[in-house]
Amino acid sequence: MRDIRQLYLDFFAQRGHKIYDSMPLVPDDASLLFTNAGMVQFKDIFTGKIPIPTPPKATSSQLCIRAGGKHNDLENVGYTARHHTLFEMLGNFSFGNYFKKDAIAYAWEFVTQVLGFDKSLLYVTIHESDDESFSLWCEHISPERIKRMGDKDNFWQMGDTGPCGPCSEIYVDQGAEFFHSSEDYFGGEGDRFLEIWNLVFMQYEQKDGIRTPLPKPSIDTGMGLERVVALLEKKLNNFDTSLFAPLMKSIENLTNKRYYHEDELLKMTDSNVGELRHTSASFRVIADHARSVAFLLAQGVNFDREGRGYVLRRILRRAVRHGYLLG
Ligand code: GLY
User: In Å, how far are 113, 163, 180, 282 from 105, measured between CA atoms?
Assistant: First the structure.
C-alpha cells in the first residue's frame, strides 16, 4: 500500500511533476464542506486566480472526505464494496501544460507497466462528445473496449461552482467468478467492471450554472488508492485488504465477533449468512467512520449542530449505531 502510493508519486516525479503534500481536509473555500478531490488545492491555479507554478505539473496523494455536499457517500459505506467517507486519492495535474494525449499515455503506461494489469482486462469510458479522446485511446486499446457515456457518468465537477470538464475513466474487469448479475457487463450497473482512475480534462469553470472556458485546458486525475490495493490484492471489497486488516482485528477483539471477507460470504451456504453479512457491514462502517472521525478531530473539526461539525457528528452517530448492532 505504501509501495503503491510511492510508485505513483515517483512515476510522475520522474516525468517532471512536483510532489505536493496532501492538503488539510478542511479547505479554505466556503463552497466546499471538505476536501473531496486531489484538485482542490489547485483550484485557483486552474481558474487563473493565481499564477501557474514552475513546474506546471503536480502530483499528490490526497486524503479526501466525501460525506457531505456534492460528493456524499455516507449512506453507502458498509453496504457497497468501494465507498468510503475518508479515502486517499492519487492524482497528477497539468496546469496548461500537457493535455489529453499525454494524460492518457501516462495513465496507460502506469496501469499496464507499473501496476502490471493485464491489458485484456482493461476498458475505458469517454464523454459521448469526445472524439479526440476516442482517437487517442485507440492508440492503446481496441475500439470495442471504449464506451461513450453522457454527462452523468463522464462529466466531472468539483461542486456546483468551480473547475470542471469531460472525463475518461479506466475500468478493470474483475472476472466472472463472483459476478453473476445481468448488469455485470461493461457499462452496466453491476460490480464486475471496476473504475480505478478518472482522467478529467479540465476545460471550464462553472458559476451560477454557467460554464466559461478556463484560461488554459488542464488535467486533473483521481485514482482511489484503496480500490487499487483491493484489485492488486485480488479482494472483492476494499475493506478486505491489508489496509483495513488492523482495524478489523481491533473490532474483532472489542466485539468477540468475526469479520468475514466478501469472497468468504459469497461461498457460504449456511442459513445465517444474512446475519453474517449484516455483521460484516457493521465492521466496515465502524472501520471507515473511525478513520474519518479521527482525522477530522485531529484537524480541528469539532462536533456541532451544523456545517462540518454536524457531518462529523452524523458520522460518529452512524458508527455508534453499528456498535450497538454488534452488541
Ligand atoms: N477530480 C477527479 C476525481 O475526483 O475523480
Answer: 12, 23, 33, 41
Residues 12/87/313/163 CA torsion (nearest 10 deg): 50
Assess whether the C-beta atom of 170 lies below 6 angstroms from ligand 1.
Answer: no
Read off the pLDDT of each residue in 296-317 and give the average, rounded to a whole number. Answer: 96
Flag whether pLDDT at 1 surpasses 60.
Answer: no
Between the CA of 89 and the centroid of ligand 1 the distance, in Å, is 8
Distances (CA, A) of 182 to 30, 256, 263: 43, 38, 19
Grid coordinates of 124: 475505458
Distance CA 76, CA 84 (A): 8
3-54: per-residue pLDDT in tens?
Answer: 999 999 999 999 999 999 999 999 998 889 999 999 999 999 999 999 999 9
Number of independent structural domains in the chain? 2
Closest C-alpha to ligand 1, atom 3: 222
Does ligand 1 have an atom closer than 6 angstroms to the CB of 198? yes
Tallying the residues shown for the chain, one arrives at: 327
Q: Whose CA is nearest to atom 2 of ligand 1?
A: 222
106-145 confidence digits (pLDDT tens): 999 999 999 999 999 999 999 999 999 999 999 999 999 9
What is the position in ligand 1's atom list of the atom closest to the CA of 89? Answer: 4
Of 201, 232, 263, the residue at which a domain comes to its end is 232
> Nearest residue CA, atom 5 of ligand 1?
222
Q: Which of 221, 225, 228 to mutate to test the pocket of ligand 1 (most atoms within 8 A of CB)?
A: 221
Q: Looking at the domain assignment, is residue 170 inside a domain? A: yes
Please check whether residue 216 is in contact with residue 95, taking contact to mean a CB–CB distance below 8 angstroms: yes
Amino acid 307: pLDDT:
93
**Contacts with 276 (C-beta within 8 Å, 6 or more apart), sequence order:** 260, 265, 268, 270
Domain that holds residue 316: 244-325
Q: Is the CB of 222 under 6 A from ligand 1?
A: yes
